[in-house]
């Protein structure tokens, strides 16, 4: 098999294994809350080998959890055309929504803005 075929296999494994999640946590700054976007992978050794080849093709190294915004965006951009094949599409939509709608900050927003953001988050239909 060519390296490209291995990357294709890795992409398929990735789409089935990836888990997107948003973690809300208390925070001592801002409005006292922050949201973190996370991408998790749980793979066996054989799966990891193929996924590492695919990740290398998009400029990332394998990690069990990605939480840096630039890495999460790189993953979302790389799988954008395969969104319907992602096994965790609800989680992916949560993460994408958070990237598109960051939590308001006190420097630029009011508590009412935060309340509206929380209401939109709670009302979102994933």
Task: Give a description of the structure.
By secondary structure, the chain is of the alpha+beta class. The chain has a single domain (3-123), classed as Endonuclease I-creI (Roll). 51% of the residues lie in helices and 14% in strands. It is built from five helices and three strands; from the N terminus they run αββαβααα. α1 packs across α2. The protein is elongated. The model has no long low-confidence stretch (mean pLDDT 92).
Short descriptors:
alpha+beta, 51% helix, 14% strand, 126 residues, 3 strands, Endonuclease I-creI, three-stranded antiparallel sheet, 5 helices, single chain
Structural class: alpha+beta
Count of DSSP E strands? 3
Helix content: 40-55%
- How would you state the average pLDDT, rounded? 92
Shape: elongated
Distance between the termini: 38 Å
CATH arch. level architecture: Roll
* String of helices and strands: HEEHEHHH
Spans of at least 5 consecutive residues whose pLDDT stays below 50 are none
Looking at CATH, which topology would you report? Endonuclease I-creI
Number of spatially distinct domains:
1
For the sheet with most strands, the description reads: 3 strands, antiparallel
Strand proportion: 5-15%
Strand order of the largest sheet: 1-2-3
Number of helices: 5
Q: At the first level of CATH, what is the class?
A: Alpha Beta
Q: Radius of gyration over alpha carbons?
A: 17 Å
User: Looking at the chains present, what oligomeric state does this protein adopt?
Assistant: single chain
Would you identify the CATH H-level superfamily?
Answer: Homing endonucleases
